[in-house]
Write the structure tokens for this entry.
Amino acid sequence: MATLKGTPAQGLFGATLGFFIGFAAVALFGPTAQRFQQAMNLSPVAVGFLIAMPALSGSLLRIPFSAWVDISGGRKPFLTLLSLSVVGMAGLAGVVAFFYPNRMTPGMYPVLLILALLCGCGIATFSVGAGQTAYWFPQKKQGVALAVFGGVGNLAPGLFSFFIPIALSTLGLSGSYLVWVALLATGLVLYFMMGRNSPYFQLLEQGSAPEEARRLARAHGQELFPSGNLKESLLVSARIWKTWALVAIYFTTFGGFVALTAWLPTYWTGFFGLGALAAGFLTALFSILTCVLRVIGGVLSDRLLEGGENTTILALLIMMVGAIVMVDAHEYELAIPGIVLLAFGMGVSNAGVFKMVPQAVPQAVGGAVGWVGGLGAFGGFVIPPVLAFAVNNLGKRGYAIGFIIFVFLALFSLSMAWVLKYMPRSPGGQSEVEVPATAARRI
């Protein structure tokens, strides 16, 4: 007889815990990249790529691992991604313990790039946890459950940005990395103990046939099940231009958020000469504020601004103003309100984008969410090297001038949002392909 474990609340807790710990895995890397630069005599551009590497794996791996959830549930993908993050963080701890600072040479740069890629696997747990959560909850409760999952999980980089300077000042670089390895390994063990697949996937693992597993899972309250062909949905949505307009906007907003969370510690210390503790606090302010405002953006989209287009246009305008302020901010007293405006624009836009997805691409919502969530987050990889390039070529003033990239990105994204608002929508709104029900909710 089949034995089922866990409840929806436990499923949500496990997924949120896994995402929170996975996202925290990369929090230590960005603030310490400057120390690697000094030890290895790296150029600002090389440091920019180093900071951006976790975002590369964390964004692109979201698509295939999201599909894996529809096959086996979330546990196996979660454990795989968290294990890879542990390997990456342990490798960095070993490099710091045995080579930093005197034995580190420029030849070790490729090793750091690879280890940073592995650490970034923790970011990809977003799509896994969102799918795992969605399978546990009925549709009428998914909104709240996914808000808790995404909101709490995305707080990780902000909270850890505040504690990292304290750890570095008290434990040193080597000690801090050892603590982070222990934290990540503990999170992996806790997820192994508490993370639970929804009843349907548990029944499949116990040998039930798919139809029998569906029947029994429905009796235990599960409403959503994997269906359709995600690969086909990805192909269909890729042929719709509106998908790529949404990718461009999310590249600017969420990709920009990931990029700045990694870059701001270097910006505050390199441009204004602030201490590590102050830089960590200001980075945490930006990260936490952006996450909180994403929730508010969802409310604005649903109730006040009558749609994701209006919400996104307003937020992008505010983001552009913030970027203009940052370009001209030569005192940190002016940079702080600039960063707050950027946080408002990015956080609210992130919510508005996914409000638009089912309206803009009703033929293949699941595939569109895959492209938007995966490739949009790719901005976290592309933008930091651009910011570093400005510093490399313009010197210290390049820290401010580099923010011009956000002005141009906001302008381009505004044009995309404007076109989406006034372009006629597809008649009927009926899907042309069957897509997984959960995919449409992975936001």
In short: Residues 7-195 form a domain with the Growth Hormone; Chain: A; fold (CATH 1.20.1250.20). The two ends are 36 Å apart (CA to CA). The chain is about 80% helix and 0% strand. Confidence is low (pLDDT under 50) at residues 426-443.
